[in-house]
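Progress note, sequence design subtask.
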């Protein structure tokens, strides 16, 4: 099981939100480079960067992302980047920053043919975000519900040739109340590509539950920032 450490970027700082609410942001580092260095020092090999400025419709933080990605690569870690990738040009720009994978959410729902084309244009480098509330995918920075289920999106994404599915239970995100293990495992049972769990991890027991369910990856953010457990302890459970 991959341990994927998250860094959410808002106004150049490393933050974490609660349930995607910009008004409920906690700033953890004015300079996110220090967070990348902390992760690398602990041996982290995969990171998840989210450009919240881009997700909320502001100018993307492309220069900062390129700097952080280069720093991560220099320490041997791979990076997936998401947030505001709502057209083909934005996807291309995200990958041009050096990211190993681009994470697409809203665009996948609204432009399925263009998303399939992006998967073909960037084989093995597109991750589809299934950000769901009560099993239904949400779009536009989680502010709008769709009529598409996470399961349907996952199955379509596999047909497109996506590299993986990032499944976030919006109701759990940032609350450390436990991830949606059963729902993520159900998605993994339906597709062959990797499905990663995101949102809600708060204890080492949560990681144990993910591993017992044979999840292939789990994103951890606030629990590490709040020192609920160490990165080294988390890596040992994966």
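Output:
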């Amino acid at each position: 099981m991959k341990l994927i450490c998250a860094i959410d970027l808002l106004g150049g700082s490393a933050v974490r939100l609660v349930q995607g609410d910009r008004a409920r942001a906690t700033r953890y580092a004015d300079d996110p480079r220090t967070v990348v260095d902390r992760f690398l020092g602990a041996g982290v090999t995969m990171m998840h960067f989210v450009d919240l400025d881009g997700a909320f419709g502001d100018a993307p933080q492309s220069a900062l992302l390129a700097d952080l990605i280069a720093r991560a690569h220099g320490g041997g870690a791979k990076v997936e980047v998401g947030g505001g990738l709502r057209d083909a040009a934005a996807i291309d720009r995200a990958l041009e920053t050096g990211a190993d994978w681009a994470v697409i959410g809203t665009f996948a729902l609204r432009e399925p043919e263009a998303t399939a084309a992006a998967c073909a244009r960037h084989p093995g480098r597109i991750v589809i975000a299934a950000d769901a509330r009560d099993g239904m995918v949400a779009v536009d920075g989680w502010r709008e519900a769709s009529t598409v289920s996470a399961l349907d999106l996952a199955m379509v994404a596999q047909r497109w040739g996506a590299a993986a599915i990032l499944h976030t239970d919006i109701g759990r995100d940032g609350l450390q109340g436990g991830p949606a293990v059963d729902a993520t495992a159900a998605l993994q049972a339906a597709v062959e590509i990797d499905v990663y769990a995101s949102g809600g991890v708060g204890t080492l027991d949560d990681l144990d539950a993910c591993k017992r369910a044979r999840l292939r990856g789990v994103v951890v953010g606030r629990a590490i920032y709040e020192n609920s457990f160490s990165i080294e302890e988390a890596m040992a459970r994966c």
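The chain has a mean pLDDT of 90. Work on this subtask will continue into the next period as scheduled.
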